[in-house]
Specification:
5-stranded antiparallel sheet; single chain; alpha+beta
Length: 179
């Protein structure tokens, strides 16, 4: 159970037997909490997202409900063990030269936890807008169940539509970012 924090070992084993492969769409984020502090690397790409959306340099982390976290973390651990073996955290450190990479939040969280301890958390991440409301680049306040974070519910599309309503240039900034 290295790399997975739970109060009940059976929860982990039960999840492993029922979970399949990773979802093709994932709209959430992983980070580490240690001593009540969020540990989440910042990247130049984050600055670009902040500039394009006129956001403050204040990150927002919103943990998903406990069951959703357990499932999403377990899915990623299962896939990691299938690919890298039982010592997947050590393998991540070797493969990624023990440094974080943009767009690799699960790997970054596992390496941080393996190096320095803490608990891996899954949920939504973003920044404060200039008006002090929250902007979530990954997930959102409405995201609660696994289906929301994997694009299998209408919550994902409602979030995109709401952001388009608030900011008509949202689509252009997303397209520019991925061009």
């Amino acid at each position: 159970m290295s790399g997975f924090t739970t109060t009940n070992g059976r929860d982990y084993n039960d999840l492993m037997t029922i979970t399949g492969d990773l979802p093709s769409t994932m709209a959430g984020h992983f980070w580490v909490v240690r001593d009540g502090r969020v540990i989440d690397p910042k990247f130049p790409e984050h600055r670009q997202i902040q500039r394009q959306n006129r956001l403050q340099d204040v990150m927002c982390h919103l943990p998903a409900p406990a069951t959703t976290q357990k499932v999403m973390i377990a899915l990623h651990i299962k896939k990691s063990k299938n690919v890298y073996g039982e010592n997947y955290a050590t393998e991540f450190q070797r493969v990624f030269n023990d440094r974080p990479y943009f767009g690799m939040c699960f790997f970054n969280a596992v390496m941080e936890q393996h190096r320095n301890g803490g608990e891996i958390v899954f949920g939504s991440m973003g920044w404060l807008r200039d008006d002090d409301t929250e902007f979530y680049e990954y997930g959102g306040k409405e995201f609660q169940v696994v289906a929301d974070f994997t694009g299998k519910s209408d919550v994902y599309m409602r979030g995109v539509k709401e952001e388009l309503r608030r900011n008509p240039k949202f689509l252009a900034t997303v397209l520019n970012r991925h061009a």
